[in-house]
Structures
1.
Amino acid sequence: MSLPSLLVLASVLVPSWTHLCLISPPQRGSMMGINTAGAPDCILLKSPCGGREERGTAISLMPHERFVVTFQKNLDHFNKTNPGYFSVSLMDPERPGAQPMELLKMNDSSDPALTLYSANVTMPAMPGHKVMQARYVTNNPQAPPAFYQCADIHIEPRFS
Ligand SMILES: *[C@@H]1O[C@H](CO)[C@@H](O)[C@H](O)[C@H]1NC(C)=O
Ligand SMILES: *[C@@H]1O[C@H](CO)[C@@H](O)[C@H](O)[C@H]1NC(C)=O
Ligand SMILES: *[C@@H]1O[C@H](CO)[C@@H](O)[C@H](O)[C@H]1NC(C)=O
């Protein structure tokens, strides 16, 4: 098969799924092509972190610090009869079985692909390495149940 027909086939087979990218704090892995709807780095389906391993650098935050989380709806598949939601939680890598601590929950809406959302969250007084998990739960039988992204953060007091 020629390259052009393969490309056409690929674009026909790509379903219009909801996609999620976590921009700040920076998601694990890369953010290639996130200005395009349907970017491969925004379609991670595996809980809890889309199969992405910890990256070398964690951002440092203080206990009780407010932080603006920014994420992107990379591709829209809003179901208005059964809206999904976005959720941002903290997980402790040393307690993998523990319930993640939810910091933010926001309903999905008809906002188009590539919409950016920013919201304040407050860090708990839980020092150490934490994993910030963003989820896009679709509640949509015609899409995967959820998309995942994670970022590594380190919560520690700062003395000056
Ligand atoms: C929306 O969700 C309902 C209930 O889960 C489902 O029956 C319906 O097919 C969905 N609609 C679309 C457009 O995906
Ligand atoms: C979010 O959606 C849920 C369920 O669809 C609804 O009960 C709730 O009122 C919504 N919250 C906001 C802030 O719109
Ligand atoms: C976050 O909180 C700060 C301080 O209250 C406020 O100035 C800013 O507008 C908030 N940002 C968002 C995205 O809500």
Note: Strands lie at 19-24, 59-61, 66-75, 85-91, 101-107, 115-122, 128-137, 146-155.
2.
Amino acid sequence: MSDQTSDQRKRKERGAEARIALAFGTSTLGAVGFAVVYVLGGQTQLEGAALAVAFGGLAAGLALWAAHLLPSGGYVEEHHGFSSGRHQQEKLAEQLDSSGGWRRRSLLGMLTVAVGSIAAAALFPLRSLLQPRGEDIVDALSTTPWRSGGLRLVDGHGEPVRVDDVTEDTILTVYPEGHPKAGDAPAFLVRLEPERFTTRPPGGVVADGVVAYSLLCTHAGCPVSLLVQGTSRLLCPCHQSAFDLLDAAKPVSGPAGRPLPGLPIFVDDDGYLRARGDFTAPPGPGFWSRP
Ligand code: FES
């Protein structure tokens, strides 16, 4: 093989090595990015993108390695004895000492770091499966921030809700003050004439003609946000379960099997609505819905 051909081959190999190093480095950054996003509270799209970068970089690096650095084709080697000649031994020592061997070892190191980073990042989601120390998992799943009692009901802008803000023809979504992002805590308020109740709402769920129930459908957790005018029934848009607010929010059609849990409320001295405690039953769907 001429020197010129050999130089071209070496230049190609160095270019491939640089691309492989870039791919493994990108993979490592993706794995680290996934771990950081997860630790900071998680964001599904960002986590998915980081994992795609991590695995994509790893796959690209391995593919480039296989395509450009591994031997290809069939080879026939003449065998002239079992011991290497002096010339071959010197050649091998020269190759091992050359920068090419050092670069390959660096690539192996980067591959190890990339795979190790992905494995380490996978441990973070596993940690979420562990039960928090000292916390009963059933208790954690079946209670909400309302349990502390006395919390004011605030609207979507964080403004405390007065009993006079609640009307008959619209439902008002509310959250526990200080916990606007608690996924299991949203509730709704609507004003009803007490004499129309066929079943009195569970204890404390009505105050000054205003009732409060969990916003989460007991079938699969969608927000039950459609008030059917004139019927005092609330419709879940996902699978059309209907709940009768005059009959303690029991399901009257659709797949939901439990009434909406009520939220015990009272009006404080300043006219603001506050919760007395947690919902009358765990909100949304869950293992407690199963027969
Ligand atoms: S989630 Fe409401 S009916 Fe299915």
Note: The chain has a mean pLDDT of 86.
